Amino acid sequence: MTTLDESVTVSVRNLGGIDDEEVTLDPGVTVLTGRNATNRTSLLRSIAAALGGSAGELKADADDGSVELTVGDETYTRRLERTSGGVRASGDPYTDDGAVVDLYSCLLATNPARQAVERGDGEALREAVMEPIDTAEIRAEIDRRQREVRTLSEDLTEADREAERLPGLRDRLEARREEREAVVDSIESVEEAVDATEIDATDAEDAERVVEELREAREEFEGVRDRLGTQRNSVESLEDERETVAGNLEAVDAPRAELEEATDDLDRLQQRRRALENTINNLVSIVEFNAELADESADALPGGGGDDDVVAALDPTAETVDCWTCGTTVERAAIEARVDDLRAVVDEKRRERNELRTEIGDQREYVAALRGDVQEHESLVAELEDIDAEIERRESRIDDLEARAEALRERIEELEAAAAESDDLRDSDLLDRYQRLSELEYERGQIDEAIDALESEIEAAEAERDRRDRLESEIEAHRDELAALRSRIADVERAAVETFNDHMETVLGLLGYENVERVWIERKTDAAADEVAPESTFDLHVVRSTPAGSVYDDTVAHLSESEREVIGLVVALSGYLVHDVHEEVPFVLLDSLEAIDAERIADLVEYFADYAPYLVVALLPEDAQALPDRFARVRTTEAVA
Predict the structure, then answer these.
(1) How far apart are CA 261 and CA 267, in angstroms?
(2) Reported pTM
(3) Rounded distance, CA 376 to CA 367, Å?
């Protein structure tokens, strides 16, 4: 980025009508003074090319040309080379954003904002202001944010569901703890009864051993049976999930061929847009060159008739000019007519470019949708494969557990038979007491497991409750960003309109145009048409006054050329300020101000100088005289060419 107190050196070779020229631009205002045909416009267009804009025309008799813009140790370049396919541009310009330079820094006769006002074209006026805003990217970002909000909302619903379980889980935990206390009391009672039983010590040991083995076998059997239930429930859930995923998979296509074709179509559309941009840039260069040629005086024109040409003196449009493309002599009116035709072609190409941008935006959304379908299909296929593998693994585990359960059942039957064969144990209730003790201890173990599980569930539910607060904050942040994204286009439009209206009011008061009370832009929207970015139009209003003091609405078509030029320049200045272009490109180039009188030009230049760190203005000598002496001056002459 240029430091705003540095001088800038511009070196031009074989561009426009310039063979070789070097000028220095100091911070502030630099005035290029000279008669027509002294390459003022060529120099401005060369500067614009170095900045990165589409201006800059290779000299008709040259195979290559260049411009260098040097600031301190940094040099920015733009080279033009004639090839079999046309003129190719290369180099390292000041900025890669050429559209910003064309719209807001290079304010020559063909500047889109000036042309839009000249035609009274509200659509083109809005485009000139809103060009840097990528609405397609804003829409894509809105879609991404909306998907994220949906995902977070689903997580929030799950977190709410888990958090709502907390009171019930705590009640169940309390009930389980009470059950455990009752079981512990029962165990203590049975143990006291066992201690009070009179029986031979050996018989007691045998009874305790048999009961212990039975207890262990039954406990293991219960554990295996529980695991079997868990595995079977899991398989059932997995089969339900598989059915759901399979149904989703059946409903989702994998349009790989359509995606490839749509991606190719998008590439072709983007190539067409780039080609169309190059065409527009080339046409704009031709229009500017021919417009400058047509505006030159008869004496300065190649092949001009001179003072003795009575016809030319009476009718300037009958002046003859050597055509720079074919070398034949044509009337100046023919060049002007051709320039008008070319301007119409440029307008048509710009409309075509706008339609193409819309088509590209739609195609991008189509490609994104197809890519999402393909990705969803692939994800479902992978998910289905994972589910099948998990079902197979769990069914194998079920087979193993069933075999283990059968073995344990047989072991329990053997132990029960052994206990029944013992006369001492059969005649005593000690075996029953040991059996009861074993059952109670097993029950206590089951309750302990249930308590541990409930405590874990409560801990998880509390974590979900805390996560719910975080999710709510994230969703709120995304919704705030969505609101900002949805209003971003409208905010820029409103800022541009307000900026224009404020500056237009100030400039009208400064320049003192009679009978023009107010010039203002009205922004109209159809909010129901599109909640993401409502379509809007810009209507340029003109309010005039009569000598009697009454006011009435008028149209741009009834304004003078001077007034239209001023309005177009203020539109461009508004875009320069709204989009903070001065931070990226601190240059503004002014040309074709002849329709404005000298004093108003001076006031307008001083006004623009407050906003552009480097303001370069091309003026006729008599217009330049009205400017303050503090402004730097560079005189252009025919010797430059």
Answers:
(1) 10
(2) 0.55
(3) 14
